Amino acid sequence: SQQGEEDPQALSIQEGENATMNCSYKTSINNLQWYRQNSGRGLVHLILIRSNEREKHSGRLRVTLDTSKKSSSLLITASRAADTASYFCATDPTWGNEKLTFGTGTRLTIIP
Amino acid sequence: DVKVTQSSRYLVKRTGEKVFLECVQDMDHENMFWYRQDPGLGLRLIYFSYDVKMKEKGDIPEGYSVSREKKERFSLILESASTNQTSMYLCASSPPRRFGGSVLHFGNGTRLTVT
Known about the structure:
Chain A has strands at residues 5-7, 10-14, 19-24, 29-37, 43-50, 55-58, 61-66, 71-76, 85-93, 101-102, 106-111. Chain A is mainly beta and 112 residues long. In chain A, strands 2, 4, 5, 9, 10 and 11 form a 6-stranded mixed beta sheet that branches. In chain A, a hairpin with a 2-residue loop joins strand 6 (55-58) and strand 7 (61-66). Helix content of chain B is 0%, strand content 56%. At the A-B interface, strand 4, strand 5, strand 9 and strand 10 of A face strand 4, strand 5, strand 9 and strand 10 of B.
């Protein structure tokens, strides 16, 4: 079953605008991670937020985590054409072995 | 920088063929994973391994097997390829959780077409 579900499935914005993607999940987690995938390539890790953290920043990325609502958001500020990619959240569950579960992703298109 | 190398970017195979997908990592990671990625379905875990000769089934192991004879190499085997196994296959590795792991390092993927 899908642990992480991203919303929206697709998003198109103008260059320079901010992009927000959301992720919902179902079970208790150790951490939640965001990955990026350029077309036809592998995934690249962007940022990890632990279950006891509420917000984390990395460059133009800001991630929030609300464990009471079992949701996370990824904000990309001042978007660039190079940010065009698919973005996936992945959850590391509290119980069980060390395997992440990925959502279906958000396809982000930045219009120059 | 961690490097995960998948032996082929593109493969075309015929139905019924035995197919080997190879993956090598250079960071001495204990954990290695095989995912397949299909439009609208995201990434689904096929098998993973947390040590040499150790393997565990993921969410969709049917029709696949794996081999891990050396720590750096994790092979995915399609015993008898079928058209519904046409997909993008992604290999990944990570250190164990006790070392702050669970962040995955991915290869660039193998796009397999079965005709």
